[in-house]
Structure formats: structure tokens, C-alpha cells
Amino acid sequence: MTKVEYEVKNLDCAGCAGKIQHKASTMAGVLNANLDLYKKRFVLEIDDLFEEELFLHQINYFADSIEPGTEILKMAEYDEEEDLKRRKEEERKAELQEKREKIALIAGGTLFIGAILLGNLSIQLKLILSIIAYIILGGDVVLKSFKNITKGNLMDENFLMTIATFGAFYIGEHTEAVGVMLFYKIGEYFQDKAVANSRKSIEKLLDIRPDYANLKNEKGEVVVISPKKLKKGDIIVIKAGEKIPVDGVVIKGESTLNTSALTGESLPVEVGVNSEILSGSINGSGVLEVRVSKIFADSTISKIISMVEDASNKKAESEKFITKFARYYTPIVVISAIVVGAILPLFLGNFNTWFGRALIFLVISCPCALVLSVPLTFFSSIGLASKYGILVKGGNYLEALTDVEAIVFDKTGTLTKGKFKIDKIESENYSEKELLKVAQIGEYYSTHPIGKTILAQLDDDIDEAYIEGYKEMSGFGVIAYYDGKEILVGNHKLMREYNIKADEREYPGTVIYIAQDGEFLGYIYISDEIKEDSEKTIKELSRLKIDSYMLTGDSKKIGEMVGEKIGMKRENIFTHLLPQDKVSKLQEIIKRSKKKVIFVGDGINDAPVLSIADIGVAMGGVGSDLAVETADVVIMKDEPSKIVELLKIANINKKVVIQNIVFALGIKILVMILGVLGFANMWMAIFSDVGVSLLAVLNASLGVKRYMK
Ligand code: ADP
Ligand code: MG
Fold first, then answer.
1. Contact (CB, 8 A) for 585 and 606
2. pLDDT tens column, 627-662
3. Distance CA 43, CA 13 (A)
């Protein structure tokens, strides 16, 4: 399966977007289609049957019949300057368009008021003013609708509005006809503005993209270049207050970093020589020289941006439902209008009365409020979560997070800090220093928290060139070949696996066994600390009626000690698990749960479990690249309590979505009922269309933020 992306131009109507998306998804070779109205992108998942030229031809033909002028184009090769130019041009056009609309609104509105003030003084003049106002306000709507009916598109919003207002003129409700058009246009105007604003504010939230880097060339001069041009191994200089452009390692200088763009915490982090630093953080007052370790595309910041951008491609069920619903809503309302306006009077007479009531239906026939506000709510929530250092990879996960029964935690690095300290080194025939050196050789390439601890005070005299082989054995430890010797570092299971005789030791921490060429050398005792917020997190979860579990590869003793200290039930703690045991244990838990199960891990050895959980959460963001890719949610900061925050955002998101659906549909249905009974008028209809739409959009963009306070 591959993904292709197209650019969408001149499409603003959300209902139309849904139709085009649906059409594309039925076309040859398209497995999945997603049209993002906010980003103006059309993303397809395709297979071998897909033929680009044919697809573009057909979809453009269809799109143009739905909303004239719509274009779906191949993405232009990305060129920074071109892009900037294009964006400026678009901005200019949009401004011009807005100005034109404003003028039309003011002119049309003034004439409309003038016509009302005239009262019954001069009926003719009033009619003339009304007609001029109508043309100024709704001319383009009428024009568009004519274009659309020639293409056979009778459910078009413009067409229905045109019929409704022409109808009102016909039955003599001139004021209503112009009023409906006026408020329809005012509504559209503000709705566009609200959508654009909320999009802008979310983009600003994510505006952590670094613009430049200071490269130090061979001559020692510093030149300013685009971060995209940096190569691995380049030396860059980061001055006070600048953004870190790519991931790297400090080789000179000391400073503090503000990592709030990544983690949502503004607490400064101290860095010095050998510290790994992540792109997207902001340098404090020191000057740093940094060796580039990842090119821009692989750096943390690029990953975050693309994750959040891709999130809108994974739609939640409620979003899909709304799109589907919208396809039926308009035809149903239009048919009801025909029944009320044309069929009822056949039996009941009073054609004009029923015809007038039917017009009310036509005004309400756009599902815009829902189609716009529901995806916007998800968009806002995902944007907001990212501000807290929580990256959610799709609306579907956000939705699933409102229906959670159990959260399964990994221990080391997740509930505990994973920053062990060495308590004791024990060996019969070797000195402490000698034993530690053997262990360090074994762990030389390890990224496991245990390995990192052993490497913390690294002796310089280990020569990398002598390391002939290295293998990590998840759940056991490591095996390395150095200068012709075989070195094992790991737990007692590893010793048994290699038939090495070693007495098993009990310790309220972790015991590391070291062997060389089949001979047991000694023990290193290390201990870990529980994270400050682990206990609070488990308590909070149990208050929310969510069960917590622990799966660990560590010993029973230490597993239960940690688990019980933070308030987990003993029967929910599973120890001595190899990575594959973790998978089967998690499957068991999933099987007996009625609702969703989350797995939270630090990413070391966790990829398989992360992928089978209903929602896989990788913590520490940078733990491992694989985990970040497999996970559905990435928490940038090493804090389990972020899970509670995430659940809160998910629940609020749901609340806002429901509010909008109930509110928008409720009002529309109410007005339709009142309309049939003769209690509603055109004014109420227009409010329940544009007014409701506007309120729903505002609620979507403000709702989540308001609740978070
Ligand atoms: P957890 O499930 O608690 O996160 P892991 O599955 O990562 O733990 O590891 C389980 C056990 O395997 C550790 O407690 C340790 O005994 C052993 N182990 C794993 N990796 C290493 C290593 N690099 N060095 C030494 N021991 C290791
Ligand atoms: Mg772990």
C-alpha cells in the first residue's frame, strides 16, 4: 500500500468535500481517501490498480460538478521560495476576496435596512431596493447554482438557497428573501473567519519548525543555512535564544534548554558536553557547539510535525458517521420540502401557506454545522494535546481513549525512572574496576536503561575496534565479542541459557550477572527509583474506574515491590516476562476486557506490545525510533501522569462533539417541526442554519480549550 497526496484548490464547502472524498474512495485502485479541507490536501491510499492520470481526470470532472472551480492537482515539487511566493499570492487573493465580500455585505445590508425603513411609503421603491440588495448579496450564489444545475447537481447548497429565496419573492415575502440571503452571507463570512482563525491558532501552536542553522565550515567560519541542508557529523553553533535545528550531541559549551515545545513543560533542562539535544527546544543563555547526529528529516521536530499533520488522516468513527450522515441529510430534507410544499397542498389546499413552509426546509438543508465542526473539534483537541507534549496520531485514537477499561504499564523506564545507580559490585577473582570494565565492554552499544547505567562512568581505555560482535537479547541481556572473548551481561536467565553456573542472588533491586568465555565473573547490584508521579497516576486511574496492570521482565520481588508501593493490586503485577510473554499476557488482558486496553511503555523492547494494544502509548518520545513509529500516542515527557491528562482531553473532545451534534441537529429538527406546524418563519430557519453553524464552529475551536482550564 502506498500513499499519494494531491493539492486541492478552490474548495470551501465541507459537504462537497465529503462527496468528493466518497467518490474517490469508490474509484479503481483507491483503498482509502481523505480530503482535508483545512490543509487543502487530498491523501489517498492506493494499490497497483491506481492510475494517476485517469484518477485526476475523473475526480476533477466530478469535483467541478459539485463545486465549480475546484481543482485537484499533483503536488508541486517542494521549493521553499516558490512555496513562500505561492502562499503570499494566496494570502493576497484571500484578502482581496474578503474585502469584496465585506463591501457587498455592507452595501447590501444598507440597502436592505433602507428598504425596511421605507415601510409602506413607496412599495415600488421598496421592491427595487430589495432587488438591488438581493443581487449585490446573492448574485454569485444564484450564478453558481445555475452552473451547478446544468451539471445535474440538484442538492447543491447554492441552488437550494436560490430556490428558497426566489420562492420567498414569489409569495411576496421580499424582506425575508433578502434577509435570508444577507444572513446566509454574513454567516458564511464569519464561519470562514472562525475556521481560518482556529486553523491559524493551531498552526501557531505547532510553529516549532526551526528556520535556519549556523553551520561551522572547515575554515571555522559560521554560515547560515537551511536546517534541511545539514549532514550527519556537521558541526553547528547554537546561540542564545535560538531554536535547536536538528538533533545532535553537544561538543562544546554549557547552557539550559527550554523544551516546552516538545514536552509541554517549561522547566529548563541543563546541558553540557556529551548531552544529547533535540531539535525544537530553545537554547537558553549559553552558546553551544553541536555535532549533528540526525538529519532534519529524521530529527525529533520533523517527526512531531508530520505526526500531528498526519493525524487528521485517521478519522474517528464519529467523523466518518457525520460524513455519511451528511450524504443522506440533504436529500431527506429536500424531499420533505417537496412533500410539504407540493404534496400536502394537494390534499389540504392553501398552496401559498404550504409553499412558504417548505421554503423553511430548504434553508435548513445544509448539514454544514456538523460537517465543519466535528472534524474541527478533533483537530483542535489533537493540536491542544500536542501543546501538552502528547502527540496523538489520529482522531480514531482520541475517540478510543474515551472508552478505556485497563491500562497496562511496563515497569522499567515507564513507572520507574530507568536511571539505575550501582549499589555494589561483587566478584571473587576480579577487582570491582575490572568487573565493571568487562560489563562496560558488553554493554558498549546498549541503549537499555541498565546498559546506560553501567556505561555511565565509562573508562576511556575500551577500544571500540576490538568489539567484534554485539547482540541484544530482549529480556535477557546482552552478548558481545571482544578481542576474541565472549562476554555475557544480563540476568540469571541469561546465565542459565548459556549453561553458566552462577548462584542466584536476591536483592531489592536488579542483579546483573557477568560472564566471560563460559566462566562466571561476578555481580553488579543496581537499583532504580520510582517516578514521582507514578503513585498519583495509579490512584487517579482507579478513581476513574480504570484498572492498572504491570508487565515486567524483572524479578517478582522487585516487580511486586514497585507495583504495591504505587498502589497496584498484586494480582495485576506480572513478572519475569520475556518480550513474547508480554505479548501473550497483554492479549489475555485484552481478551477478557470489554472495553479498550492501553499499553504504556518507554519504548525499549516494547514495540510488539505497543502494536497489539488497542492504543499503544510510547513514553519518553525519544526512547526508540521503532516505538515512536509503532505507537498510536507518543508522550514526549517521561511522566506517566500525562496519561491522565490525555484521558481528560479525550473526554472533553467527546463532550464537545456531542454538544455540537445534539445542538445542531436538535435546533434544525425543532425548526422543521415548528415549520410544518406553521410556528417557524424564515428568520428562525436562517438562524438554525448559519447561526447554529457559526456557534458550533466556535464551540469546536474554543470548547476544548475552555474546558482544560
Ligand atoms: P522491563 O520489562 O521492566 O522494562 P526489560 O524487558 O527491558 O524490563 O528487561 C528485563 C530484564 O532483562 C531486566 O530486568 C534485566 O535483568 C535484563 N536485561 C535486559 N537488557 C539488559 C541489558 N542491556 N543489560 C543487562 N540486563 C538486561
Ligand atoms: Mg522497559
1. no
2. 777 889 989 888 999 999 999 999 999 999 999 999
3. 18
Q: Would you state the CATH architecture of domain 231-294?
A: Distorted Sandwich (2.70)
Give CA angle at 206 (373, 98), nearest 5°: 55
Instruction: Compute, in angstroms, the gap from residue 625 CA to the centroid of ligand 2.
Output: 14
Q: Is the pLDDT of residue 464 over 70?
A: yes
> Which residues surround ligand 1 with Cβ inside 6 Å?
410-413, 443, 446, 448, 450-451, 475-478, 489-491, 510, 512, 552-554, 604-605
Q: What is the residue extent of each domain of the chain?
A: 2-77, 84-204+311-379+652-708, 231-294, 395-417+530-631, 421-527
To which H or E segment does residue 31 belong? Answer: strand 30-36
Helix (H) or strand (E) run with residue 148 in it: helix 123-150
CA distances from 154 to 144, 330, 342 (A): 12, 10, 17
Q: Vertex 23, ends 22 and 24: CA angle to 5°?
A: 90
**From the CB of residue 508, how many other CB atoms can be counted at a distance below 10 Å?**
12
Residue 193's CB is within 10 A of a number of other CB atoms, namely: 13
Q: CA 167, CA 355: separation in Å to the nearest integer?
A: 8
Residue located nearest, by CA, to atom 21 of ligand 1: 477
Q: Locate 679 and state its grid cell.
A: 410556528
Q: Which ligand is nearest to the CA of 606?
A: 2
Residue 622 to residue 293: CA distance in whole angstroms: 13
Residues belonging to the chain: 709
> What atom of ligand 1 comes closest to residue 413's alpha carbon?
4
| DSSP per-residue codes, 594-639 | SSEEEEEE-SSS-HHHHHHSSEEEEESSSS-HHHHHH-SEEESSS-
How far, in Å, CA of 199 to CA of 227, rounded? Answer: 25
- CATH fold of 421-527: Calcium-transporting ATPase, cytoplasmic domain N (3.40.1110)
Say what the pTM is.
Answer: 0.80
Angle at 536 between CA 551 and CA 402, to 5 degrees: 75
Please name the residue that has the C-alpha cell 570491582: 432
CA distances from 581 to 56, 495, 498, 691 (A): 49, 19, 20, 56
Written out in words, the top-level CATH class of the domain with range 2-77 is alpha beta
CATH-assigned architecture of domain 395-417+530-631: 3-Layer(aba) Sandwich (3.40)
533 by DSSP, 3-state: which?
A: coil
Between 709 and 354, the higher pLDDT residue: 354
Residue nearest to atom 8 of ligand 1 (CA): 553
pLDDT at 81 over 90: no
Which residues are catalytically annotated? 410
